[in-house]
Amino acid sequence: MSTYTILIVLSGLIIFSYLFDLFAGKTRIPSVLLLLFLGVSIKQLVTYFDIKVFNIGAILPTLGTLGLILIVFEGALELKYSPQKNAVIKKSFFSALIILLCTTFTISWIFWQLSGSDYYRCFLNAIPFCVVSSAIAIPSAASINKQKREFIIYESSFSDILTVVLFNFILSNKHISIGSFAKLGAELTTILAFAVGACLFLLYLIGRITHHVKFFLIIAILILVYAIGQSYHLSSLIIVLSLGLFLNNANQIRVPWFRKYFIYPGLSIDLKQLHQLSAESAFLMRTFFFAIFGFTMDIDQLQKWSVLTIGGLILLAIYVIRFIYIKLVSKTDLMPELVIVPRGLISVLLFYNLPASMKLPGIETGLLFVVVLATSIIMSVGLFFSNRRVGNKEFENV
User: Fold this and answer.
1) What are phi and psi of 52, to 5 degrees?
2) More confident residue, 65 or 2
3) Which pTM was predicted?
């Protein structure tokens, strides 16, 4: 492919993604779903015309990581803290934690029964299927009311973080002991202390930079901090979430010395520009990631009954556990929380990070594609009928 052909494809993807976002706003069909189909369609055209392309699947983990950082950061920049929100934060944290553990144990049991492999490998392979993707959930929650939207943002962000913590913990500890949990506690303490330092440093830096290129530097430093932490198997996503929350709520800190050195007159304007830049950058990464994921997918795997059967069992586990939790623990309305459990970006990243020696036969990218696709379709259908019901109730009350 020539340079100009590549430029045409890249710009075309961005234009289509923009149109998909507009279409998603009208129909409640996630733009991610349309991007996946676009990637699959491009793959069919490339195969039909026998066009030679380089191995673009190799850049998928990098794009996914960048997208994850920017999407979580963007979501955190939208959240304003107040003591009244302690309840929703606590509720979303325990929802993410309990559902993650219950779903992982259930799906790992399914893998254990079907594969006959040792339970450790089954548990590790189950984790990527158990995370609520903030990359899909946060944009999809834009149409629901503010209280439910905040719950979804917190829950999906916590789900990302807790799943990464669980994945790294299990991967590093084949045999779990008291020492394993002590090591985990030390790592989390380290990352929290590092997060506090990073938040203060970056806020101080934002107020002192006078160069016209400012916010890409901040994002670059954030990505650098994340990458360094992850290279040491630390859950650096905590830093990303903490920084977004800290920046958007720094004005609420009334400590005199803090306000003297860190708060400046143009902070609100700078934060608005940083949020805009992170949102557009996240849009770009999400576009390329899901289009490339669709392109790299071998759709012939979808013809295997084993893939569809296992995928169906995974979906059953996901929705039954969430239904039980909402009814017995949360005791709130089922909709739309029941359906906003998409699998996506973080699932793909964790799946690609599984060591080759740990992967189970039959648990392949085709199965992941089925789960990602099905959860997105179920979410879009559920949101459509949920919004329609809400609209009808508002009409009746007029």
Assistant:
1) -85, 125
2) 65
3) 0.81
Q: For position 222, what pLDDT does the model report?
A: 86
Check pLDDT > 90 for residue 45: no
Give dist(CA 97, CA 104) in Å, integer: 11
Q: Are 123 and 170 in contact (CB under 8 A)?
A: yes
- Fill in the DSSP letter of residue 132: -
Domains and CATH numbers, the chain: 3-397 (1.20.1530.20)
Residues near 386 by Cβ (< 8 Å), separated by ≥ 6? 144, 335, 336, 339
Let me know: does 244 contact 157? Beta carbons within 8 Å.
Answer: no
Over its C-alpha atoms, the chain yields an Rg (Å, rounded) of 21
**Contact, 315 vs 322, CB < 8 A?**
no
Q: How far apart, in whole angstroms, are the C-alpha atoms of residue 169 and residue 18?
A: 38
* DSSP symbol at 57: G
342 and 371 in contact (C-beta within 8 Å)? Answer: no
d(CA 63, CA 389): 37
Helix locations, 326-364, DSSP H: 345-352
Task: Quick: pLDDT tens for 227-276.
Answer: 888 777 677 778 888 888 888 888 888 888 888 878 888 888 888 888 88
The string of DSSP codes covering 80-116 is: PP-GGGHHHHHHHHHHHHHHHHHHHHHHHHHHHHHH-
C-alpha 369/C-alpha 364 separation (Å) is 9
Give dist(CA 95, CA 326) in Å, integer. 9
Q: How confident is the model at residue 103 (pLDDT cuts 50, 70, 90)?
A: very high
pLDDT tens, position by position, 185-198: 888 888 888 888 88
Closest CA to 191 of 216, 217, 158, 225: 225
